[in-house]
Write a sequence for this structure.
């Protein structure tokens, strides 16, 4: 069993800490102008964080015991191809999951 | 003299609904993960109040799963908190990236908007602000709140459903892969620009090479190097066209 006092300490600290992380720069820097070199780097935050965040999940999926799974690799490529080719987020989500199910059906 | 209609910021309502619409595809991803978190938390012995307080206060699936797993292993409290916060440290970069967009809003509005800055909301916001443009500060705040409003009710509601009835989704649906598909789908359209593509390639390469590092350090290193790569590619393109 999880200790209830420890649980509540974690819930409150994690909730507060996560909010403060989100608020950090938005709150402290506020309307002060940022230098050009910094703005140039901040433009790439989304594409710098998210592909790296999911890369290990694509290449070594836990659901497959950490082994590379051809079906998941193909599904990732299909989602990427639709997203970049057609500029469509929704198409990429559906295409990727459809690709995954189709590959799993074909490979068995 | 200006009328009331001209004094109020134009188009805040449409901006809210634009954010709502842009983020709504991710209901498909957030809903099953809410179900899963509710079920896992319930199995771990959390009651409804504990599960729902955690999900509403934290609103960050990966960190919630991390905290729950470490609690079940009886890790020390500080380790649980530090490890789960490390998972969320990427959001400091989201916060910094949003400064040029909403930094000049009032403190109250910035404090309110900050709550909504989760991965999906951040990604659709940046895509709309940077690639489509034409949003005022008030519209950007409305967009962020609208994007969060599309998915938060489903994350919270499905967590409740999962805690009440358990996880009803069989493993054959491979929903573990909904998260990677979600992030690929959000970022792939951004990669139609060369510096963004270069940043993503560096991010993936470094993340895989350093995946053995603990506490999500691999992600921080990969993200910083990827941002530098994107910025340098942008400068190189400027010099070449000059």
């Amino acid at each position: 069993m999880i200790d209830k006092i420890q649980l509540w300490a974690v819930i409150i600290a994690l909730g507060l800490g996560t909010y403060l992380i989100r608020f950090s720069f938005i709150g402290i820097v506020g309307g002060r102008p940022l230098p050009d070199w910094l703005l140039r780097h901040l433009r790439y935050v989304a594409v710098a964080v998210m592909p790296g965040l999911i890369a290990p999940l694509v290449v070594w999926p836990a659901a497959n015991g950490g082994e590379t799974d051809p079906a998941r690799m193909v599904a990732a490529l299909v989602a990427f191809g639709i997203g970049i080719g057609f500029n469509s987020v929704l198409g990429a989500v559906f295409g990727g999951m459809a690709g995954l199910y189709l590959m799993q059906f074909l490979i068995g | 003299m200006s009328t009331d209609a001209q004094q109020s910021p134009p188009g805040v309502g449409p901006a809210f609904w634009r954010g709502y619409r842009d983020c709504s595809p991710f209901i498909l991803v957030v809903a099953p993960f809410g179900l899963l978190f509710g079920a896992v938390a319930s199995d771990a012995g959390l009651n409804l109040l504990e599960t729902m307080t955690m999900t509403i206060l934290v609103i960050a699936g990966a960190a919630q799963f991390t905290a729950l797993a470490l609690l079940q292993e009886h890790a020390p409290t500080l380790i649980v908190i530090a490890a789960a916060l490390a998972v969320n440290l990427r959001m400091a970069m989201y916060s910094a990236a949003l400064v040029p967009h909403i930094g000049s809003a009032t403190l109250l509005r910035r404090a309110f908007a900050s709550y909504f800055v989760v991965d999906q909301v951040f990604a659709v916001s940046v895509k709309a602000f940077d690639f489509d443009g034409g949003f005022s500060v008030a519209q950007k705040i409305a967009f962020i709140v609208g994007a969060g409003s599309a998915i938060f009710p489903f994350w919270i509601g499905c967590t409740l459903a999962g805690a009440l009835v358990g996880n009803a989704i069989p493993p054959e649906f491979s929903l573990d892969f909904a998260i990677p598909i979600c992030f690929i789908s959000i970022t792939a359209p951004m990669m139609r620009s060369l510096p963004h593509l270069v940043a993503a390639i560096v991010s993936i390469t470094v993340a895989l090479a350093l995946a053995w590092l603990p506490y999500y350090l691999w992600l921080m290193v990969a993200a910083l190097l990827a941002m530098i790569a994107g910025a340098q590619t942008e400068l190189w393109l400027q010099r070449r066209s000059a």
